[in-house]
Amino acid sequence: MSDIVFRSDMTADLVRCAARDSDVIFAARVSTQGEQSLAAAGTEATERDRGLIRFLMRDRHGSPFEHNSFTFFVEAPIFVFREFMRHRIASYNEESGRYREMRPVFYTPSRERNLVQVGKPGAYEFRPGTDEQHEIVEREIRETATAAFESYQRMLESGVAREVARAVLPLNLYSSMYVTMNARSLMNFLSLRTKREDAAFPSFPQREIEMVAEKMETAFAEAMPLTYDAFNAGGRIAP
Q1: Long-range contact list for 130-139, CB < 8 A, 24+ apart?
Q2: Which of 12, 33, 35, 200 is 20 to 30 A removed from 79 (C-alpha atoms)?
Q3: Which pLDDT does position 123 carry in this prediction?
């Protein structure tokens, strides 16, 4: 049997990007200037375009932010993917446990991950756990994940189909997927899956999906700096 791996990090690599601030400008101005005028206007957004982008963001003119594309390769526990797919604003292709043998890679929280929830849903916070709580989390996750994967392997070795044997695997198993979305969808995702003091509306994401969102936000900020600045200036509300 392959060695079981435990990790606490998330992967969100930008593998394909067709997104610039100028895409927003072109889409917004085509209604007044026409395609031919825009074709001669250059390909890069300038600081002069910042005001238009902020206007579009502030007044919720969202469609100009849709004419672009980001594709990320994400590796995360299955429970993170189930939260991802609550966002019906992206295209997903995930590895299949029916057609390939799943890898023995499991999530276990790092010591920096808060463990104790205080308060009620909608008005709660997480606080650090004690040494004893971290130890029991680490021990129980490692023991149950190891036992589950050994059970999975025994069924495969006996000739049971992968799609049946995978039923014993826990939600902290790592999976991988490609996810593609435009800037408008990405801003909607970030507004809900990150916790920021400068957000107009509070969000309480689970830390694991927030770790993925933070990596995606870095890529967004680099690709579309004027749009990203307008998103933050507007309270991180997607247009």
Answers
A1: 134/109, 137/108, 137/109, 138/108
A2: 200
A3: 73
pLDDT > 90: what percent of the chain? 84
The residues that are catalytic are: 193
CB distance 74 to 215 below 8 Å: no
Question: What's the pLDDT score for residue 140?
Answer: 98
| Domains located in the chain, CATH noted | 5-106+174-233 (3.30.1360.170)
Query: Which burial class, exposed, middle or buried, applies to 25 when counting CB atoms under 10 A from its CB (0-12, 13-18, 19+)?
Result: buried
CA-CA distance, 27 to 182, in Å (whole number)? Answer: 13
pLDDT on residue 42: 53
Closest alpha carbon to 90 in 187, 176, 212: 187
The CA-to-CA distance between both ends of the chain, in Å, stands at 50
- Over residues 140-168, mean pLDDT: 98
- The average confidence (pLDDT) of the chain is 92
Q: Which residue numbers belong to the known binding site for FAD?
A: 63, 86-88, 94, 182-184, 188
pLDDT for the residue 38: 46
Q: How far apart are CA 191 and CA 75, in angstroms?
A: 21
Indicate the pTM of the whole model.
0.91
Report the SS3 class of residue 163.
helix
From the annotation, which residues make up the binding site for dUMP? 83-86, 94-98, 166, 193
Confidence of residue 36 (pLDDT cuts 50, 70, 90): very low
Six-digit token string for 230: 């307008």
Residues annotated within a binding site: 63, 83-88, 94-98, 166, 182-184, 188, 193
